[in-house]
Protein backbone atom coordinates (compact mmCIF):
# COMPACT_ATOMS: atom_id res chain seq x y z
CA UNK A 1 0.00 0.00 0.00
CA UNK A 2 1.04 3.58 -0.70
CA UNK A 3 0.07 6.15 1.92
CA UNK A 4 0.18 9.92 1.46
CA UNK A 5 0.59 12.20 4.49
CA UNK A 6 -0.33 15.89 4.13
CA UNK A 7 1.22 17.73 7.08
CA UNK A 8 0.16 21.17 8.26
CA UNK A 9 1.31 22.85 11.48
CA UNK A 10 -1.49 24.69 13.27
CA UNK A 11 -3.12 21.45 14.40
CA UNK A 12 0.08 19.94 15.79
CA UNK A 13 0.34 18.75 19.39
CA UNK A 14 1.02 21.57 21.84
CA UNK A 15 0.89 24.51 19.42
CA UNK A 16 -1.60 27.32 20.06
CA UNK A 17 -0.15 30.67 18.92
CA UNK A 18 1.35 32.44 15.93
CA UNK A 19 4.83 32.35 17.51
CA UNK A 20 4.57 28.56 17.54
CA UNK A 21 4.03 28.24 13.80
CA UNK A 22 5.51 31.26 12.03
CA UNK A 23 9.13 31.40 10.90
CA UNK A 24 10.93 33.84 13.18
CA UNK A 25 8.48 33.30 16.04
CA UNK A 26 10.10 32.75 19.41
CA UNK A 27 8.74 29.20 19.65
CA UNK A 28 8.82 28.26 15.96
CA UNK A 29 11.88 25.99 16.24
CA UNK A 30 10.18 24.08 19.03
CA UNK A 31 7.07 23.91 16.85
CA UNK A 32 9.10 22.26 14.08
CA UNK A 33 10.16 19.54 16.52
CA UNK A 34 6.57 18.97 17.60
CA UNK A 35 5.39 18.84 13.97
CA UNK A 36 8.06 16.31 13.05
CA UNK A 37 7.13 14.10 15.99
CA UNK A 38 3.43 14.16 15.05
CA UNK A 39 4.28 13.24 11.46
CA UNK A 40 6.53 10.43 12.63
CA UNK A 41 3.63 9.06 14.68
CA UNK A 42 1.50 9.01 11.53
CA UNK A 43 4.27 7.28 9.57
CA UNK A 44 4.57 4.61 12.26
CA UNK A 45 0.80 4.16 12.15
CA UNK A 46 0.79 3.87 8.37
CA UNK A 47 3.47 1.20 8.47
CA UNK A 48 1.62 -0.68 11.20
CA UNK A 49 -1.52 -0.53 9.07
CA UNK A 50 0.21 -2.19 6.13
CA UNK A 51 1.82 0.63 4.15
CA UNK A 52 4.80 -0.33 2.03
CA UNK A 53 5.55 3.28 1.07
CA UNK A 54 4.83 6.59 2.79
CA UNK A 55 5.15 10.00 1.14
CA UNK A 56 4.96 13.10 3.35
CA UNK A 57 4.11 16.55 1.99
CA UNK A 58 5.17 19.51 4.17
CA UNK A 59 2.33 21.96 3.51
CA UNK A 60 2.67 24.78 6.05
CA UNK A 61 3.72 28.31 5.09
CA UNK A 62 7.21 28.05 3.51
CA UNK A 63 6.69 24.27 3.30
CA UNK A 64 10.16 23.85 4.84
CA UNK A 65 9.17 23.11 8.42
CA UNK A 66 9.76 19.41 9.03
CA UNK A 67 13.21 18.51 10.35
CA UNK A 68 14.53 16.37 7.53
CA UNK A 69 17.20 14.67 9.61
CA UNK A 70 14.64 13.64 12.24
CA UNK A 71 11.91 12.43 9.88
CA UNK A 72 11.08 8.73 10.05
CA UNK A 73 13.51 6.94 7.70
CA UNK A 74 10.69 5.06 5.96
CA UNK A 75 9.14 8.30 4.64
CA UNK A 76 10.09 10.35 1.60
CA UNK A 77 9.42 14.09 1.79
CA UNK A 78 7.98 16.68 -0.59
CA UNK A 79 9.47 19.98 0.61
CA UNK A 80 9.55 23.64 -0.43
CA UNK A 81 7.43 25.95 -2.55
CA UNK A 82 5.89 26.94 -4.85
CA UNK A 83 4.07 23.69 -5.48
CA UNK A 84 1.40 23.70 -8.20
CA UNK A 85 -0.86 21.52 -6.04
CA UNK A 86 0.11 22.87 -2.64
CA UNK A 87 -1.26 20.72 0.18
CA UNK A 88 -1.85 17.74 -2.11
CA UNK A 89 1.30 18.00 -4.24
CA UNK A 90 2.30 14.61 -5.73
CA UNK A 91 -0.98 12.95 -4.71
CA UNK A 92 -2.31 10.77 -7.51
CA UNK A 93 -4.45 7.67 -8.00
CA UNK A 94 -1.51 5.34 -7.29
CA UNK A 95 -1.97 6.04 -3.55
CA UNK A 96 -4.31 3.98 -1.41
CA UNK A 97 -4.94 6.38 1.47
CA UNK A 98 -4.47 9.99 2.60
CA UNK A 99 -3.66 10.99 6.17
CA UNK A 100 -3.90 14.65 7.27
CA UNK A 101 -1.63 15.61 10.18
CA UNK A 102 -1.75 18.91 12.06
CA UNK A 103 -4.78 20.26 10.19
CA UNK A 104 -6.90 23.12 11.55
CA UNK A 105 -10.50 24.31 11.35
CA UNK A 106 -11.71 26.68 8.64
CA UNK A 107 -12.05 30.45 8.84
CA UNK A 108 -14.85 31.54 11.13
CA UNK A 109 -14.68 28.45 13.33
CA UNK A 110 -13.56 28.74 16.94
CA UNK A 111 -10.80 26.21 16.47
CA UNK A 112 -7.15 26.60 17.41
CA UNK A 113 -5.40 28.89 14.88
CA UNK A 114 -8.42 28.58 12.58
CA UNK A 115 -8.23 30.18 9.13
CA UNK A 116 -8.49 29.22 5.48
CA UNK A 117 -5.15 29.34 3.68
CA UNK A 118 -4.33 33.05 4.03
CA UNK A 119 -4.74 34.26 7.57
CA UNK A 120 -7.80 36.50 7.61
CA UNK A 121 -7.70 37.47 3.91
CA UNK A 122 -10.13 34.65 3.01
CA UNK A 123 -13.37 35.09 4.91
CA UNK A 124 -15.12 31.99 3.62
CA UNK A 125 -15.11 29.37 0.88
CA UNK A 126 -17.80 27.13 -0.55
CA UNK A 127 -17.92 24.08 -2.75
CA UNK A 128 -20.94 24.00 -5.04
CA UNK A 129 -22.07 27.36 -3.62
CA UNK A 130 -23.61 25.99 -0.42
CA UNK A 131 -21.06 23.77 1.33
CA UNK A 132 -18.71 25.85 3.49
CA UNK A 133 -15.17 24.55 3.51
CA UNK A 134 -11.59 25.37 4.43
CA UNK A 135 -8.38 23.44 4.06
CA UNK A 136 -9.88 20.23 5.45
CA UNK A 137 -12.81 20.21 3.06
CA UNK A 138 -10.81 21.22 0.00
CA UNK A 139 -8.13 18.60 0.61
CA UNK A 140 -10.80 15.98 1.28
CA UNK A 141 -12.79 16.85 -1.85
CA UNK A 142 -9.66 16.88 -4.03
CA UNK A 143 -8.32 13.56 -2.75
CA UNK A 144 -11.74 11.97 -3.15
CA UNK A 145 -12.03 13.30 -6.70
CA UNK A 146 -8.68 11.71 -7.52
CA UNK A 147 -10.05 8.44 -6.15
CA UNK A 148 -8.00 8.24 -2.92
CA UNK A 149 -9.83 8.14 0.44
CA UNK A 150 -8.89 10.38 3.36
CA UNK A 151 -8.67 7.89 6.22
CA UNK A 152 -7.29 9.80 9.23
CA UNK A 153 -6.82 13.34 10.51
CA UNK A 154 -5.18 14.93 13.56
CA UNK A 155 -5.73 18.44 14.88
CA UNK A 156 -7.80 20.20 17.51
CA UNK A 157 -11.23 18.86 18.40
CA UNK A 158 -12.96 21.42 16.16
CA UNK A 159 -10.89 20.30 13.16
CA UNK A 160 -11.72 16.68 13.92
CA UNK A 161 -15.42 17.49 14.03
CA UNK A 162 -15.10 19.36 10.73
CA UNK A 163 -13.69 16.38 8.82
CA UNK A 164 -16.47 14.18 10.20
CA UNK A 165 -18.96 16.47 8.45
CA UNK A 166 -17.32 15.43 5.17
CA UNK A 167 -16.94 11.73 5.98
CA UNK A 168 -17.88 10.02 9.23
CA UNK A 169 -15.51 7.14 8.42
CA UNK A 170 -12.38 9.26 8.82
CA UNK A 171 -10.46 8.27 11.96
CA UNK A 172 -9.57 11.32 14.05
CA UNK A 173 -6.96 12.07 16.70
CA UNK A 174 -7.79 15.25 18.64
CA UNK A 175 -4.49 16.42 20.13
CA UNK A 176 -5.92 19.53 21.86
CA UNK A 177 -9.30 20.94 22.80
CA UNK A 178 -10.02 24.51 21.73
CA UNK A 179 -10.86 27.05 24.39
CA UNK A 180 -10.48 29.97 21.98
CA UNK A 181 -8.63 30.67 18.75
CA UNK A 182 -5.30 30.92 20.57
CA UNK A 183 -5.97 28.78 23.63
CA UNK A 184 -6.52 25.08 24.21
CA UNK A 185 -6.43 22.31 26.76
CA UNK A 186 -3.54 20.19 25.56
CA UNK A 187 -3.51 16.44 25.46
CA UNK A 188 -0.25 15.04 26.91
CA UNK A 189 2.21 14.79 24.04
CA UNK A 190 2.90 11.07 24.39
CA UNK A 191 -0.83 10.33 24.54
CA UNK A 192 -1.56 12.57 21.57
CA UNK A 193 1.03 10.87 19.39
CA UNK A 194 -0.21 7.44 20.40
CA UNK A 195 -3.67 8.57 19.25
CA UNK A 196 -2.27 9.75 15.90
CA UNK A 197 -0.48 6.46 15.40
CA UNK A 198 -3.58 4.42 16.28
CA UNK A 199 -5.98 6.47 14.13
CA UNK A 200 -3.62 6.24 11.16
CA UNK A 201 -3.12 2.50 11.51
CA UNK A 202 -6.87 1.92 11.73
CA UNK A 203 -7.56 4.18 8.79
CA UNK A 204 -4.96 2.54 6.57
CA UNK A 205 -6.26 -0.92 7.43
CA UNK A 206 -9.77 0.26 6.59
CA UNK A 207 -8.58 1.62 3.23
CA UNK A 208 -7.19 -1.80 2.33
CA UNK A 209 -10.68 -3.29 2.63
CA UNK A 210 -12.50 -0.58 0.68
CA UNK A 211 -13.55 -0.78 -2.93
CA UNK A 212 -11.66 1.95 -4.77
CA UNK A 213 -13.73 4.70 -6.34
CA UNK A 214 -13.22 5.92 -9.86
CA UNK A 215 -11.97 9.51 -10.30
CA UNK A 216 -14.76 12.08 -10.05
CA UNK A 217 -15.44 13.78 -13.40
CA UNK A 218 -18.22 15.98 -12.01
CA UNK A 219 -18.05 19.74 -12.53
CA UNK A 220 -18.02 21.67 -9.28
CA UNK A 221 -18.32 25.33 -8.33
CA UNK A 222 -15.70 27.00 -6.13
CA UNK A 223 -16.67 30.26 -4.40
CA UNK A 224 -14.26 32.37 -2.35
CA UNK A 225 -15.15 35.45 -0.32
CA UNK A 226 -12.16 37.75 0.22
CA UNK A 227 -11.69 40.48 2.77
CA UNK A 228 -10.52 42.80 0.00
CA UNK A 229 -12.71 43.79 -2.92
CA UNK A 230 -9.49 44.47 -4.86
CA UNK A 231 -8.66 40.77 -4.89
CA UNK A 232 -12.07 39.83 -6.28
CA UNK A 233 -11.82 42.53 -8.92
CA UNK A 234 -8.40 41.34 -10.11
CA UNK A 235 -9.45 37.68 -10.15
CA UNK A 236 -12.35 38.54 -12.43
CA UNK A 237 -9.69 38.88 -15.11
CA UNK A 238 -8.99 35.13 -14.95
CA UNK A 239 -10.97 33.34 -17.69
CA UNK A 240 -14.03 31.61 -16.25
CA UNK A 241 -14.05 33.60 -13.00
CA UNK A 242 -17.06 35.78 -12.18
CA UNK A 243 -17.87 38.04 -9.24
CA UNK A 244 -21.10 37.30 -7.41
CA UNK A 245 -20.69 40.41 -5.24
CA UNK A 246 -17.92 42.93 -4.58
CA UNK A 247 -15.78 40.48 -2.62
CA UNK A 248 -16.83 37.01 -3.78
CA UNK A 249 -15.65 35.16 -6.87
CA UNK A 250 -16.99 31.96 -8.42
CA UNK A 251 -15.46 29.55 -10.91
CA UNK A 252 -16.62 26.17 -12.20
CA UNK A 253 -14.56 23.16 -13.18
CA UNK A 254 -13.40 19.71 -12.21
CA UNK A 255 -11.26 18.69 -9.29
CA UNK A 256 -8.30 18.56 -8.92
CA UNK A 257 -8.08 21.35 -11.52
CA UNK A 258 -10.02 23.74 -9.27
CA UNK A 259 -7.53 23.10 -6.49
CA UNK A 260 -4.65 24.10 -8.72
CA UNK A 261 -6.50 27.19 -9.93
CA UNK A 262 -7.09 28.21 -6.33
CA UNK A 263 -3.33 28.25 -5.88
CA UNK A 264 -3.21 30.93 -8.58
CA UNK A 265 -5.92 32.85 -6.69
CA UNK A 266 -3.69 32.84 -3.61
CA UNK A 267 -0.72 34.20 -5.54
CA UNK A 268 -2.83 37.07 -6.89
CA UNK A 269 -4.19 37.82 -3.42
CA UNK A 270 -0.72 37.75 -1.85
CA UNK A 271 0.57 40.24 -4.40
CA UNK A 272 -2.24 42.67 -3.51
CA UNK A 273 -2.48 42.38 0.26
CA UNK A 274 0.67 41.31 2.06
CA UNK A 275 -1.21 41.06 5.34
CA UNK A 276 0.21 38.97 8.14
CA UNK A 277 -1.96 36.05 9.27
CA UNK A 278 -3.57 35.72 12.72
CA UNK A 279 -4.17 39.47 13.13
Automatic annotation (TrEMBL):
<feature type="region of interest" description="Disordered">
    <location>
        <begin position="198"/>
        <end position="218"/>
    </location>
</feature>
<feature type="binding site">
    <location>
        <position position="10"/>
    </location>
    <ligand>
        <name>Zn(2+) 1</name>
    </ligand>
</feature>
<dbReference type="InterPro" id="IPR007035">
    <property type="entry name" value="Peptidase_M55"/>
</dbReference>
<feature type="compositionally biased region" description="Basic and acidic residues">
    <location>
        <begin position="203"/>
        <end position="218"/>
    </location>
</feature>
<feature type="binding site">
    <location>
        <position position="8"/>
    </location>
    <ligand>
        <name>Zn(2+) 2</name>
    </ligand>
</feature>
<feature type="binding site">
    <location>
        <position position="60"/>
    </location>
    <ligand>
        <name>Zn(2+) 2</name>
    </ligand>
</feature>
<dbReference type="InterPro" id="IPR027476">
    <property type="entry name" value="DppA_N"/>
</dbReference>
<feature type="binding site">
    <location>
        <position position="135"/>
    </location>
    <ligand>
        <name>Zn(2+) 2</name>
    </ligand>
</feature>
<feature type="active site" description="Nucleophile">
    <location>
        <position position="115"/>
    </location>
</feature>
<keyword id="KW-0862">Zinc</keyword>
<feature type="binding site">
    <location>
        <position position="104"/>
    </location>
    <ligand>
        <name>Zn(2+) 2</name>
    </ligand>
</feature>
<dbReference type="Pfam" id="PF04951">
    <property type="entry name" value="Peptidase_M55"/>
</dbReference>
<keyword id="KW-0479">Metal-binding</keyword>
<dbReference type="InterPro" id="IPR036177">
    <property type="entry name" value="Peptidase_M55_sf"/>
</dbReference>
<protein>
    <submittedName>
        <fullName>Peptidase M55</fullName>
    </submittedName>
</protein>
<feature type="binding site">
    <location>
        <position position="8"/>
    </location>
    <ligand>
        <name>Zn(2+) 1</name>
    </ligand>
</feature>
<dbReference type="GO" id="GO:0046872">
    <property type="term" value="F:metal ion binding"/>
</dbReference>
Amino acid sequence: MRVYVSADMEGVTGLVGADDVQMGGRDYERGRVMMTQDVNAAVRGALAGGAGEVVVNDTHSTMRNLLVEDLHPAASLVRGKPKPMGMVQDLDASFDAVVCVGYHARAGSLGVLSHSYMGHEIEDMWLDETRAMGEIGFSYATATAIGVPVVALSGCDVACEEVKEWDARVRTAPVKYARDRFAARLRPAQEARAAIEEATAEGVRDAASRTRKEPDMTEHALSVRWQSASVAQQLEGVPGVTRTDDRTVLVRGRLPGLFRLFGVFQQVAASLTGQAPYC
